[in-house]
Amino acid sequence: MNRNEQDRIEQLLRQAMPPTGDAEPEHDLWPAMLQRLNVQPAAPPWFDLALAGGLAVLGALFPAAIPVFLYYL
User: Fold this and answer.
1) CB under 8 Å to 66, separation ≥6 — which residues?
2) Is the pLDDT of residue 32 over 80?
3) Among 26, 32, 34, 55, which is most exposed with the fewest C-beta within 10 angstroms?
4) pLDDT at position 25 over 80
5) Is the pLDDT of residue 60 over 90?
6) 47 pLDDT above the threshold of 90
7) What is the CA radius of gyration of the chain?
């Protein structure tokens, strides 16, 4: 690769990626982070609970299948 090609690539890269400078957030992000940490987690969807219940029923009806279930975890 000669110098002209390198200069052309450098020019294209500078056009594609403008300099960031001293980019600072407009406000402090820590209070928003604390607020997100204090929010209660959402309840699991009903489908997940139904799958877990079905797995428990199958484990009770067919105990020999428990190692198979554990293998796929």
Assistant:
1) 59
2) yes
3) 26
4) no
5) yes
6) yes
7) 28
